[in-house]
Amino acid sequence: MIALFLLPNMLIFALFVLIPIGLNVAYSLTGGAEVFLPDRSFVGAAHYARLMDCTNALQPRTCRDDSFWTAVWNTLRFTVFQVSLMTVAAMITALILNRRIPAKGLWRAVFFFPVLLSPVVVGLIWRWILQRQGLANLMMVEAGLPPVNWLTERGWAFAAAVGVSVWAHVGFYALILLAGLQAIPRDLYEAAEMDGTPPARVFWRITLPLLMPNLVVVITLAVIRAVQIFDEAYVLTGGGPGTATMFLTQYIYETGFASPVRNPGLAAAASILMAGVLVVLTLIQQRLRKAEGR
Amino acid sequence: MKTTVTALLLGSALATGAWAGDVRMMWYSDGNEGEVMADLVSRFNAENPDIKLTLDNVAYQVIKEQLPIQLAAGQGPDIARMTDIKKEAGHFLDLTPYLADPAYWQTNFGAQMDWMRPDGSDAITGFMTQLTLTGGFANATLFEQAGVPLPGEGATWDEWVDAAAKVQASQQTAAAMAIDRSGHRIAGPMISEGAKLIGPDRKPAPLDDAGKGFLTKLIGWTADGKNLKDVWVSAAGATYRAGADEFINAAVPFYYSGSWQVANLSEKIGDGFDWVATGSPCGAAGCTGLPGGAALVAIKSTKNPQDVGKVMDWFAREDIVKEFSERALFLPAHKAVLEKGLDFKTEDPHAKAALNMFVKATGQLTEEAQQIPAWTPASDVYAALVKRVGEAMAGELSPEDAFARIDADIAEAAAKVAQ
């Protein structure tokens, strides 16, 4: 009887998750530009070997597929910067929104509003702001400062990709932390206040430990989202300048679909390697949650 | 039961994507040709009530990136306007059995038939909606204000860039020149310098000194701020970017693109400033642009080939090609229309002069340049050029490293041809 109730869900899961994963694995083992699997020739692990063909993986230009390793390191760098910044920003936002401030509802809506925007819209808005003759440079010039090539200098473009991503998603993570903050019993704070505990000590000894389960969720979700970064960064910088903001998902998209030299098998192999990383991250999250539970 | 059967029939009919008489045409526009086409489609539908022709206007990016996937998957529209026609030729329908008079097509469009059919085939798959030629445009007003004379006929790339750099310095423009982020756009100047892209066996040739020479100059012009960096570094990989808006906004005095921009520039610049088409600057081996164009092709997966044949016959008519070309400001590929001459429908003297300049420039095409449109690996070579030159312009690769990477990518393309 239980199996009968589970069957519809399992069928949908198989149709939209298991079968596509199987197909992706099959594609990664075949070569050519053809779309239909039967038309493609079996190449075994050739695509994986090509992706791993490196003299020194720390230096992408020594790799046969330098674009892949460039994208890997860009994604890693992006994840470290974006998740760190996002977590701190979400924490500060949540702490402020948890205080007794005027128009609290309005401020919560303001911070959450970018989450509701389409990533493409986010990318376009910021592209208009940061382009050579955009709003940011107009304001800089008005203020007597020299204009900055936000999107054509490697460092600035990378910082813009990180910053825009944080701006777009911080509201969501702040909301998770806010829920955690509101679940912390008030009497703990009252006791600390009666003991004359300084605010910093209250934060480190009460707020942070009790917020840890929410923080683990925030960090895990943020890491997974960061590894999958594509849409807003693609619209904002197109992966440029050069390959400074080309992330793994864009590499997969371009290799499999957008490039005139399409290679769906190579793209599938790269996506499976990326999925492997995400599985590892998810397992780490589960471990952390279990440890938290103990 | 009856309802179920009806629903199944309805579902299967929708799944085929086409009712008898339904023809979908995927179209993109650079200038006003979409409006002209919409008008012609209305007239076609009025004259042919048994066929319902629908025009789907999409962005050029969709034609470049999504349509090839649809074609490879056996999907897509019945007819499409495309530019990567040689590469996708295997997906096109041979219209010969569905045309009223195939000989008319051979006579009038025969010169470009090989551009849109597989090597060795004699299929009629479509016709060119326009012939294009890459070439430059200069902002004559900025040159005049700077007191710099426009370089004359036979001026080299160096002379053009030097003159434009003087205008840049005088008029404080963002850069001296812009060139589209496209392998097709930089291939012409490379060939002008004497580069051979096609090897003796028709496989892609490794970069030669002439090709490297132009690319080294281009990367250098970008590094010292003469070539507008934004167009090339605003994307990674082989993504296409046009620099037209920079020229329209007077951010650069010289812009290298092609004849398809004439209507766009005419419409958007208006009387903002005076502009002229310059043809292609010269190199050591010539002053060639690269010919090409967009074709209207029938797609093999169509469920209504008879109707597609009728639609194609109607749009290939001499009077229709003439009207379309005159209103869209395009150079037609139709032999009889070209022989009888055109009266372009524009009051803009800049546009008329520019079109005449491009017609004149067709006389300067080198043999190598004329072979490119019917050469299948061209788009693979363009992709390698754009990707690596873009990385060199962004400062990630030295020119030498970029050339080594281009050669490796070209060798892969050559291996593909060998297969």
TrEMBL record, chain A:
GO terms classed as biological process: transmembrane transport
Pfam families: BPD_transp_1
Domain ABC transmembrane type-1: 72-285
This protein's record includes keyword Transmembrane helix: yes
Main location, first listed in the record: membrane
GO CC terms in record: plasma membrane
Family to which this protein belongs: Belongs to the binding-protein-dependent transport system permease family.
Protein name in the entry: Sugar ABC transporter permease
Naturally occurring in which organism (per UniProt): Paracoccus suum
Upper taxonomic lineage: Bacteria, Pseudomonadati, Pseudomonadota, Alphaproteobacteria, Rhodobacterales
Automatic annotation (TrEMBL), chain B:
Alphabetic keyword roster: Signal
UniProt GO cellular component terms: periplasmic space
Main location: periplasm
Pfam families for the chain: SBP_bac_1
Top-rank taxon: Bacteria
Signal peptide: 1-20
Location(s), subcellular: Periplasm
Family affiliation: Belongs to the bacterial solute-binding protein 1 family.
Protein's UniProt name: Carbohydrate ABC transporter substrate-binding protein
Organism in which the protein naturally occurs: Paracoccus suum
